[in-house]
Write a structure and sequence with these properties.
With 364 residues, the protein is of the alpha/beta class. The protein has two domains: 130 residues, Response regulator (Rossmann fold), CATH 3.40.50.2300; 197 residues, Orthogonal Bundle (Hypothetical protein af1432). It contains 16 helices and five strands. A five-stranded parallel beta sheet has the order 2-1-3-4-5, sandwiched between helices. Bound molecules: fe (ii) ion.
Length: 364
């Protein structure tokens, strides 16, 4: 392949006769040549149109050739640069090479040598550009495939979570409803769409850690022993461990870890309080409790939404953030039909006691 053919070359030379000679020489070799007498005009020309190569006289008036070469390297990293120097400027030319110039010519130049060196620089530049593009394509493909693998894995975890809930009529659809309630609350709080998505995802996955809780404990109809309760409590940390390698967004993982913290302190796993608890986790705690209270249990019927709200108000400041409880109260007319529809569509069974067994105790 002839790299000279149609290659756009910029000759930056203050001597008009040398400019004309180089234009003729490189034009005869098949290049599309443009000339500039100094650095600023050369830069303007580069901004107007892309050049494959700039041949720059080191000793230009005003902006020197070295300075121009640096400016081009910064602004047009794909352009090859050849420096033309006098014999005594060789150390400066070597410095230019170190700074990224492709080659240097010593004036007076052998004309055949100029064409050979330009051709060689163009070939090297082509290989570099191809290599860079290839690398960018590879990186983009790796990014895409990593994202696809994560999506796939996340999908599997979501399926696992809903399969875990679906084993029991009392838990079916709980996480999806919690996700919807929490999404509505975050929207009402004016949180950015990205935050809303984060809280919704955390809602969908918040109890995934129950996969690590013994079945006999999860399905126990009566009160839990202290050891069993501690075992159930571990689900928030287990959830964090499951999700951390899959989710790039560590904030979502953090919401899952802290969804059983209490606003006034004393929750688990870390006993955080107030603003020490991620906002998404505080929102999730309200949504989780509301869905638990309005769901049937083996040992009690679901509460009406207004009665559930009163329970939340009773625990406001202790277990739940008061302003979030009131946000739910303000949106109850919207939230209640929404989760009722979710239950009616078969996304939820008659109740949710399983995933709320620990929660129920927290609710009191
Ligand atoms: Fe939970």
């Amino acid at each position: 392949m002839n790299d000279l053919a149609q290659a756009r070359i910029l000759v930056v030379e203050d001597d008009a006769a040398v400019r004309a000679l180089l234009r003729q020489l490189l034009g005869d070799a098949g290049c599309a040549v443009e000339c500039a007498p100094n650095g600023p005009i050369a830069l303007e020309a580069c901004r107007r149109t892309a050049f494959a190569l700039a041949m720059i006289d080191l000793r230009l008036p005003g902006m020197g050739g070295g300075e121009l070469a640096e400016a081009l390297a910064r602004e047009f990293p794909e352009a090859a640069v050849i420096i033309a120097t006098g014999v005594h400027d060789t150390p400066t030319a070597v410095a230019c090479l170190r700074a990224g110039a492709f080659d240097y010519l010593t004036k007076p130049c052998d004309l055949d040598d100029v064409v050979v060196r330009v051709g060689r620089a163009l070939e090297r530049r082509r290989l570099l550009v191809e290599n860079r593009r290839h690398q960018q394509e590879l990186e983009a493909r790796v990014r895409l495939e990593t994202r696809a693998a994560r999506r796939l894995f996340l999908g599997a975890i979501k399926s696992l979570s809903s399969a875990l809930e679906a084993k029991d009529d009392y838990t079916r659809g709980h996480s999806e409803r919690v996700s919807r309630i929490a999404g509505e609350l975050t929207r009402r709080l004016g949180m950015a769409p990205r935050e809303v998505r984060r809280v919704r995802l955390a809602g969908t996955l918040h109890d995934i850690g129950k996969i690590g809780v013994r079945e006999s404990v999860l399905s126990k109809p009566g009160p839990l022993s202290a050891e069993e309760y501690r075992h159930v409590q571990a689900h928030s940390i287990i959830g964090e461990r499951i999700l951390a390698p899959v989710l790039v967004d560590s904030d979502t993982v953090s919401i899952v870890r802290h969804h059983h913290e209490h606003y006034g302190g004393g929750g688990y796993p870390d006993g955080l309080s107030a603003s020490g608890i991620p906002l998404g986790a505080r929102v999730l705690a309200v949504a989780d409790a509301f869905d638990a209270l309005t769901s049937d249990r083996p040992y009690r019927c679901r509460l009406a939404p207004e009665a559930a709200l009163e329970v939340l108000r009773g625990g406001a400041g202790g277990q739940w953030q008061p302003t979030l409880v009131e946000t739910l109260a303000q949106r109850l007319e919207y939230v209640w039909p929404m989760i009722s529809r979710a239950r009616g569509r078969g996304e939820a069974g008659p109740g949710d006691s399983l995933s709320n067994q620990g929660q129920d105790k927290a609710v009191g």
